[in-house]
Amino acid sequence: xxxxxxxxxxxxxxxxxxxxxxxxxxxxxxxxxxxxxxxxxxxxxxxxxxxxxxxxxxxxxxxxxxxxxxxxxxxxxxxxxxxxxxxxxxxxxxxxxxxxxxxxxxxxxxxxxxxxxxxxxxxxxxxxxxxxxxxxxxxxxxxxxxxxxxxxxxxxxxxxxxxxxxxxxxxxxxxxxxxxxxxxxxxxxxxxxxxxxxxxxxxxxxxxxxxxxxxxxxxxxxxxxxxxxxxxxxxxxxxxxxxxxxxxxxxxxxxxxxxxxxxxxxxxxxxxxxxxxxxxxxxxxxxxxxxxxxxxxxxxxxxxxxxxxxxxxxxxxxxxxxxxxxxxxxxxxxxxxxxxxxxxxxxxxxxxxxxxxxxxxxxxx
Amino acid sequence: xxxxxxxxxxxxxxxxxxxxxxxxxxxxxxxxxxxxxxxxxxxxxxxxxxxxxxxxxxxxxxxxxxxxxxxxxxxxxxxxxxxxxxxxxxxxxxxxxxxxxxxxxxxxxxxxxxxxxxxxxxxxxxxxxxxxxxxxxxxxxxxxxxxxxxxxxxxxxxxxxxxxxxxxxxxxxxxxxxxxxxxxxxxxxxxxxxxxxxxxxxxxxxxxxxxxxxxxxxxxxxxxxxxxxxxxxxxxxxxxxxxxxxxxxxxxxxxxxxxxxxxxxxxxxxxxxxxxxxxxxxxxxxxxxxxxxxxxxxxxxxxxxxxxxxxxxxxxxxxxxxxxxxxxxxxxxxxxxxxxxxxxxxxxxxxxxxxxxxxxxxxxx
Lengths: 365, 365
Known about the structure:
2 copies of one chain form a homodimer.
Chain A: E1 10-14, H1 15-32, H2 46-53, E2 60-62, H3 65-73, E3 78-81, H4 90-98, E4 102-107, H5 110-118, E5 125-129, H6 143-152, E6 156-161, H7 172-195, E7 202-205, H8 208-213, E8 222-223, H9 233-237, E9 248-258, E10 261-264, H10 268-271, E11 288-290, E12 302-306, E13 311-314, E14 328-332, H11 336-340, E15 345-349, E16 357-360
Parallel strand pairs in A: 1-15, 2-3, 3-4, 4-5, 5-6, 6-7, 7-8
Antiparallel strand pairs in A: 1-9, 9-10, 9-14, 10-13, 11-14, 12-13, 15-16
């Protein structure tokens, strides 16, 4: 099967670029002698997970229990569910763990820590540490850290932080500084726990930007990152991914033509309504338009508007787009995690136009 | 099963409100003596389609071939695929039509009209008319209209327009004016076709706003509308839907708490990144926060930020949110078509907290 035979819109994943991105991250972390627990929230695919865990301890991170169930069903047992747990979700975790998985949960809440410890089959739990993002977590010096740890007792497995504010870093120096704050904060939290007798074996940090730009990972036992596997326009804009190393694109067909613009069959559902590049140095609208081979030879053509199933391509005046109805284009996404989520499979290529595999994804909750 | 037993995030669909919305549209169009061809791109559910087509001729509108296949498989045969067709998609249409469906396609392109007529099993086709939206279609007085009609020959079934720019109307008078332009334009196109001998039996217009606010539908043979079934915050802001008649909400759980705000497990995937209310009179962020019963008693609490799986609820200072981890809330969406698309089913209630049915959805392409 060739790319031109595929139904549109669909996801095209370039395995050659994917392997290069995975290799770059592995080599970087190997220099720090810190293993990777890849975050599968972007790829949501066992085929990608196998590539991303190769040469690593084998554990993964997930963002939904649907992912945990899917990956456990495919033989991955060491799973960190890195979104704050609710007491109601503990039964589903227990069910997975009874069936052989070792799902670790996350909390920053005293009552929830109590619910975990009181469950008939408590999972191991990490305490979420806020190292500056201000989303979830207790700060490293908060007294509540020790109270939550005491409440978890033997189920405490360590600490975790996510410096999601690294995404608002506007230079690699910014990101390196944020990475150091992230590292120092979560290590400080682990040290406080150890001072009062907790083992806290897991000290987990990560985001693709800080994983790739941390200068020092002392005290960190694992790094989490996900979007680096595919990359996207936003990561390229903040300098943490090469624009030519975006592994995932949306294949689309021309469905309308007017002077200076085209309609394509990739709209707000196929691309997502993510506008993360709106405030970036370069605003790509809803995505950058590439040719059918995934090459950037259409200049600055972007998806300027996105209806549910229609995308409006605004051509670059220097690169007129004279294409017939049915012609194929590929769109590099603003935010690959959001774009991939509308699709149930990847059509895998290796640089060329031959589809070498179809890899399913797990979506939903 | 009760709402409190449901896994989160998930869709809750209130059948009582849905039936009221469907009844209002049917009564309004009955006054004009024009039937409805409901657009199923919002609901994507056979159960909803059965309610929306009750008392109507029975045909529907779809936005993807996946919907066409799904609804045809559930016995609905009269299907308008209302997104510009490509020559490559004609085989799939032919396959559905061979199996008993009567899928009608849409084009505004001369070459594509030729490809339709030359197919081994041509579907009937509508010509898309641009009555002011400027997305797709030929204008009513364009010479190309007659050329495309000639190329389609016996497969020409009529004309269709979509006044999507009614969404930017800022008053009901605006919308009524746009509806009249939409009606007059598509009827004019049909008249031109009839003057040269084409039957053009179908003269189709629609969008929920213009369907509900047209004062005159003379010459129109069918109206298409979809979002009116569920409604959303954006439709409420433009005055075409009652804020208390939004049938679809996202059920979510509290997963974090800080002064003045909460974290919930409905983020950018469960809600979509749609920000259509950003420019509306009232900006609801990524959605309006309701209590677990779907009532608006939390004031102006909204989802201010949306990460992949985390939503940040900004409380209304007049309505402090003191809720434990695991407490339930419901979120009214900005744009119901986009929000529903991340979910594979509806949990159906009838005003109360009892789940009376589970209705699947068809997603993807």
